[in-house]
Amino acid sequence: MSEMTQTAAKPRIERSATAARTYAIFLIIGLAALIIAPMFFYPIFLMKLLCFALFACAFNLLLGYTGLLSFGHATFFGGAAYFTAHVVKEWGFTPELGILTGVVGAAFLGLVMGFFAIRRQGIYFAMITLALSQMFFFFCLQAKFTQGEDGIQSVPRGHLFGFIDLLSSTNMYYFVLAVFLIGMVIIWRFINSPFGMILRSIRENEPRAISLGYSVARYKLGAFVMSAALAGLAGGLKALVFQFATLTDVAWQMSGEVILMTLLGGIGTLIGPIFGAGLVVTLQNYLATSDFPVTIITGVVFMVCVLVFRRGIIGEFYASRLGRKLGFEHRR
Amino acid sequence: MAVAATARQEEPRVVLSARGLSKSFGAFMAVRQVDLDVRHARVHALIGPNGAGKTTVFNLLTKFLQPTAGSITLLGTDITKTQPDRIARMGLVRSFQISAVFPHLTVLDNVRVALQRPNGLSTQFWLPVSSLDRLNARADELIESVGLKRERNALAADLSYGRKRVLEIATTLALDPKVLLLDEPMAGMGQEDIGTVSNIIREVAKTRAVLMVEHNLSVVADICHHVTVLQRGEILAEGDYATVSQDPRVRTAYMGTEEA
To answer: What ipTM was predicted for this assembly?
Structure first.
């Protein structure tokens, strides 16, 4: 027995070395593609994609790495969009300060929602987050500063650090890309940290984590707030890209959409949600001009995904023969 | 028997005690009026037929269940209303009947997770995982002490059942607990692992109290100083193994022909 585990242990280490190399290559290709992308695609489309990709990755931090299915993430995304839009437009905040306000606001909303929901599990957790996000939706509908059905319109993009004009879509694109990459680095560090290790152990065996003395609820709340803050980062960014913040971003459909993106891309994979978001946003953009209803297509895609490739695009790729050859491992 | 005889002369202090512990699930009394004294540097066995309430007592003592009546004292503090994670931090650590490891973590990581909290390395979300490397020395020490050195980098899920239980004991010891509650530590183990685990328990009990649920009576006879027999949620008999095993009620209720 021990001989067997011993021989099994060795290739594991070699495999992770191969994976590291593959990751590095893919990372360089991906970065290069993102840098030259505005030459080939419409920048607004790319920026929308990056905002949603970041949103989905933030959501996945909670679902994939903590095992909590929130149905209220629109609150953080849309809430931050309102906060950013408001402080930039009405109070004349610079873009970076505006986004920071959105992030802090979303983190605070996350703290409140998490406080009420975190001790519940599974469907109850999802329902409480949904209920609270509906409450927030109605708050946004009624509150003065959101301007109800109209939303906050014509938000100025302003000058980044006071001298980079963000009205230029090239400048704006690279700003969005930089924020996106910062967000990804934060997520990556978060899941590969001492804290992330405890989250993993909680997901693996919660009673054991408790019996080792961990206040499980606090760690989950930490992950929840972090996920909310990053969703807020994406939301604030989106408000600047489109120069408006509306009720669409806080509606429950948005919470559903981010679940769809994450599932499509691959739960619990770092980059999966990026692809999921890419697919959904592309579909929406492509179908927006045709007569065909978008929701039917996304519904069909979702069903196919659940029935045929449950691990999601990236998850299936990792688990495939090619993926394993490249040294990936799908843990779940 | 020599152990029991000296033990009676000067009993070490009680570290964990329960008085009138009861738990009912609806109309069903799973545990009824149980008094228990677990002493420092002693191995205390909790035995009894299936459904006697042994695991329920464990869940009550570690507060995974809230008792219906009675009180529990740990190291002089009343813990009847304390949360389970808090109790673990106070030094009462349990194992589970089904092996409690983190299956998709390596043996090393399993032990390190247990070491993270006592070493103040569990909330840093800005540090890299490599910051945990400073726990390696202590983790390796623990891994070696239970004989898992060769499996250090294997996934816990790939270990045999017996090895998983051994790993679980290593993670439990990582917390340096004052009281150790082991729920059937030998269940499903091969003879070789039983010997290893018996030695480990004997060793750790030199400096801590151990309370264990165990079905294997030769193990109980071998390493336990004190035995409490439960039947239908109540204490049937108590004492050292020799006394208990001669008790006619115990023999009919539990041991039957096995140890006559």
So the answer is: 0.79
Two structure tokens written together for B129? 């995982």
Is the minimum CB–CB distance between A121 and chain B shorter than 8 Å? no
C-alpha A69/C-alpha A199 separation (Å) is 15
Strand locations in chain A, DSSP E? 159-160, 164-165
Interface of B with A in 92-131 (CB under 8 A): 93-96, 100-105, 109, 112-114, 116-118, 121-129, 131
Query: Contact A223/A105 with Cβ under 8 angstroms?
Result: no
- Residue boundaries of the structural domains of chain B: 2-101+177-255, 102-158
pTM of the shown model: 0.83
What is the CATH code of the structural domain delimited by B2-101+177-255? 3.40.50.300
pLDDT tens by residue, B148-205: 889 889 999 898 888 888 898 889 888 888 899 988 888 878 787 888 888 888 988 8
Rounded Cα distance, A110 and A66, in Å: 15
Structure tokens that stand for A137 in this block: 């939706």
User: Which amino acid is present at A19?
Assistant: A
Residues of chain B neighbouring A226 (CB-CB closer than 8 A): 125
> For the residues A143-165, what does the mean pLDDT come to?
83
